Amino acid sequence: MIDGITVFGAGVMGSGIATLVTGHGIPVHLVDPDATALDRAGTLVAQQQRHGQLLGSFPGDTTFGDLTTAESTDGRIESAIVVEAITENTDLKRALLTEVSSVIADEALLISNTSSIPIDELATAVTRPGQLVGIHFMNPPYLIKTFEVVRGRQTGEAAMTAVTALLDRLGRRSVVVRDSPGFVTSRLLHPMINSAARLVGTGVATAAEVDALMQGCLGHPTGPLRTADLIGLDNLVDSLIVLAERLDDNSYRPCEALLEKVRRGELGQKTGAGFYTYDGMAT
């Protein structure tokens, strides 16, 4: 029985995780110091709940779990499961995990949602590293059926049992991988997106042409650049920089076309424009 989950970060991923969890009848307490982000997240979660319900992503007989929000925890966290879902920045994640790990229960499960930062690197910031496990929640998490679970060298058996039980409760398949920069999915997907963006930036093809070829010829479900817009181009750039630095391989460096989009604030669906435009979809 899961009584409730605390999620830190009211951005795209935090809201999507909250949608997935509440959609399966589990209450979520969403924490973010930005009151505007919390208001926006409340609206987004309600929209995504309706969308997921229409697509049959949630059990038909389940009442949605309550969503509550707060700008801080006031130093108290009672949930047995805590998810960190803030921006893909090592220093920010480590600072938050240090704070959270000092006030959660000894047996609580602490999850970091990361697409590229090694769990072993984050584990040095927490009080009890055996509690920490990584999940790479794909966006949108309420529609994706399989998640990458990252076990650090110090992650304990109790944490692995708890995270497996959580994903089972959410109707998700978990694939456990060993810890490394970018794990499996980002090491494969992000360089492909970078290459696709480079083709667009140098005028070889348009974003729509690249995606059409990847879908029609190679079976990619949405195309790499529409996927990039869904991930968020700022998040993608952050992840590519982590990969380049941690792997000492400059081929992972984000190309100029991606960097220019980020400089212009064209971050994908969440801002209404990226490689594509999204009328009325900016969040």
From TrEMBL:
Q: What class of enzyme is it?
A: oxidoreductase
Q: Keyword set for this entry?
A: Oxidoreductase
Q: Which ranges carry the 3-hydroxyacyl-CoA dehydrogenase NAD binding domain?
A: 5-179
Query: What InterPro entries does the record tag this protein with?
Result: 3-OHacyl-CoA_DH, 3-OHacyl-CoA_DH_NAD-bd, 3HC_DH_C, 6-PGluconate_DH-like_C_sf, 6PGD_dom2, NAD(P)-bd_dom_sf
Q: Which residues form the 3-hydroxyacyl-CoA dehydrogenase C-terminal domain?
A: 182-278
This entry's Enzyme Commission designation comes to 1.1.1.35
SUPFAM superfamilies the record matches? 6-phosphogluconate dehydrogenase C-terminal domain-like, NAD(P)-binding Rossmann-fold domains
Q: What GO molecular functions are on record for this protein?
A: (3S)-3-hydroxyacyl-CoA dehydrogenase (NAD+) activity
Q: Name one Pfam family in it.
A: 3HCDH_N
Listed pathway(s): Lipid metabolism; butanoate metabolism
Q: Does the keyword GTP-binding apply?
A: no
What family is this? Belongs to the 3-hydroxyacyl-CoA dehydrogenase family.
Put simply, this protein is called: 3-hydroxyacyl-CoA dehydrogenase family protein
Which classification does the entry list for the species?
Bacteria, Bacillati, Actinomycetota, Actinomycetes, Mycobacteriales
